[in-house]
Design a protein that fits this description.
This protein has twelve helices and ten strands. It folds into two domains: 235 residues, P-loop containing nucleotide triphosphate hydrolases (Rossmann fold); 33 residues. A hairpin with a 2-residue loop joins strand 4 and strand 5. It is of the alpha/beta class and 274 residues long. The N and C termini lie far apart (42 Å). The longest helix has 18 residues. Helix 4 packs across helix 5, helix 4 packs parallel to helix 7 and helix 5 packs across helix 7. The structure holds adenosine-5'-triphosphate.
């Protein structure tokens, strides 16, 4: 066990071609670290580049430049060719998406889905029941196919499948955004427990500050592809240094919330060109 960070992301950059000429910079100079068992939130509005960064971490998007290193091992721009290398690569980082429905095989029951993932990674398929139990799914859900599960149950299954691989890092991209608030709270609590029990590190991508508030140690605020602020979540959310972070906080509905204040804050920020 060392004190070196588990995940080191160094100056990731990604551009996409724009229709006609030129390129859009979706991520520019994005750097951060996550300690073993740590949890980092990546927040920002729609289009700020969060998903692009998350996808570069897992290898679904190829960066123009920059590096991702897990436990001292640089991740190549493409998954390794050999099967053993590919499996080891998948064990480093797993991703859970906003809509698990599209990433779950509709033909498999929950138990079959987990057993398949466990076997693929050379693990004991008999621990499937324990994993289902871990995420709060019972015998009925074990035998159900995804279309017969609720949104929250499907997300629990997606988390269990990611855990079946025994990953070092779990990247969750808007993983609770489609769920209603009470189910969101249950899933967030579950993730927090899993982190404490297994030591898996979490990277939590969300447009919702309330979501990262409770389950992340550190937060990174993105705007127009750049990191405008990063630091301990409590500090950033209670004493934000950047006007854009203040704008995001003003936009969170709560007691006494006034949408006009949020709209006005945005106008001011746009006018300063910050
Ligand atoms: N495959 C692509 N081709 C071209 N442009 C893209 C592509 N993927 C993303 N973009 C653009 O890159 C920018 C960042 O998108 P990204 O999805 O990373 O943002 P985001 O913060 O995750 O937003 P959201 O919360 O809406 O998903 C956006 O302007 C988006 O239109």
């Amino acid at each position: 066990m060392t004190d070196a960070p588990l995940l080191v992301v160094d100056r990731l950059r990604k551009t996409y071609p724009l229709p006609g000429r030129g390129r859009l910079t979706a991520a520019e100079d994005v750097s951060f670290t996550v300690p073993r068992g740590g949890s980092l939130g990546i927040v920002g509005e729609s289009g700020s580049g969060k998903t692009t960064v998350a996808r570069m971490l897992v290898g679904l998007v190829r960066p123009d430049s920059g590096t991702v290193t897990v436990d001292g091992r640089p991740r190549g721009p493409r998954p390794p060719r050999r099967r053993s290398g590919r499996l080891a690569h998948a064990r480093e980082i797993q991703m859970v998406f906003q809509d698990p429905y599209v990433s779950l095989d509709p033909r498999l029951t929950s138990a079959q889905c987990l057993r398949t993932a466990l076997r693929l990674h050379g693990r004991d398929a008999n621990i499937a029941a324990g994993l289902l139990d871990r995420v709060g799914l019972g015998a009925r859900e074990a035998d159900a196919r995804p279309r017969h599960l609720s949104g929250g149950q499907r997300q629990r299954l997606a988390i269990a499948r990611a855990l079946a691989v025994d990953p070092r890092i779990l990247v969750l991209d808007e993983a609770v955004a489609a769920l209603d608030v009470s189910i969101q709270a249950q899933i967030l609590q579950l993730l927090d427990e899993i982190r404490r029990d297994t030591g898996v590190a979490l990277v939590f991508v969300s447009h919702d500050l309330a979501v990262v508030q409770h389950i992340t140690d550190d937060v990174l605020v993105m705007r127009h592809g750049r990191v405008v602020e990063q630091g301990p979540t409590h500090r950033v959310l209670t004493d934000p240094a950047h006007p854009y972070t203040r704008l995001l906080l003003a936009a969170v509905p709560g007691q006494g919330w006034d949408p006009n204040t949020a709209v006005e804050a945005r106008r001011t920020l746009a006018a300063t060109g910050d």
